[in-house]
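Quick one:
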Amino acid sequence: MKAYRALRVATGIIQRDYKEQYSHIRNYALELKRSNPYTTVRIQHESAQPNDPTRVFKRIYICLGPLKKGFAVLGRDLIGLDGCFMKQPAQGHILTAVGVDSNNGIYPVAYAIIEKECLLNAVEELFPCAEHRFYLRHIHHNMKKKWNGLAYKNHLWRCSTATTVPEFELAMNQLKEFNKDCHKWLTDIPPHQWARSHFSGRAVSDVLLSNMCEVFNRWLIDARDKPIVTALEYIREYLMKRIVNVLKHQSKCDGPLTPGATKTFEKIKEEASQCSILWNGGQQYQVSGLHGRQCVVDMGRRECACRKWELTGMPCKHAVACLNNMAFNNQQVGVPEEWVHQVHWLMRWKETYKCHIVPLNGKSMWPKSNDPTKILPPLKIATAGRPKKNRRKSAEEILEMNEKEKLSRKGKSKQCGKCGTYGHNKRGCTNEASTCVGTKTSSKRKSGKRAQSQTNDAAGN
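Output:
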């Protein structure tokens, strides 16, 4: 009974803290705006009854002013949207908007806590003219429900990674020959939402996966079971620490490009040495690769028929081969890195992180809101069974975990560690020590060593 009463008291304290923090959420928003100018905070709530002095919390959206400025300086119009659920006793979902910085690292832009996830409908309603891309992993997950296997995955990957329309159509025709129903299902998804061949160069990126959002959400695991203000503070403090870590990394870097862009561009330079060039005397070149692929490069417009330069902002191997030819013919081209989009420059990367998040004062020093109404926690929706705290993993994730950690024992016969027989373990063993027949080798070895020790002791005496 003492343990039960202690548990009840502790639970009451925790629940009271979770409920109380909703009443401070307006003051917290004012402190964010005061300390970090140009910060946007939106709080939505609803009244339970007409003329009720209380309001029920629905959602909160935060975009810190320094992150807003940094994203504008970055100049990479790419934002990944994703969400993760809050753990009990907290409720709702954490939504995150994450960009990609000049070093191909994550750059969080905004975050929110809402009652339920509705990303797709919100994007179509608020940004109807935006170029909307689907994560390829989610498409593959839906495909596996009917067409599973490595062959289907490879077909999907070839279709999505093709950078030109003819290559995309060739890959789609190969999928059609392999399975017509799967081809028809994939055709219903607009290609400009999942295939590189139909992407524009506006985002200066050809990403197909949601790694940037998943990395950020992984760092927020410890915030998902905390009270709402504590969870929001955990996210803000993580963003502060992350900027400091990036600044430390930048202080060790040197060169025209970021470390990630330098590594990628060095590989492109090696591939360019294997290309053959035919110049037309003007701005255009005919470039043939090692595998017979022939492309036309227009150096005046900074375009290549393979479209990789247009998609990523980084000259492809055909363009770098043209730069080498131009330098060989005494044309003023400078170093090849000068032809890379400024998004990948070290200078742009450093300018992006000059926007620092300002720390906050303690709760006792926050501005007081003049709103007479009081915000209450959202109504708890009771669910049957024990509350689940872990995300439900897909079959593919479970398979990957088993391959990395250990092999499954499912379907294998158990061997007793006491008597050595199969069909049970040592906890359920009923055999007596004297009647055990199948002893394990390690037990025999220990018994032999013990007998030899006793013999030596007797001989010594």
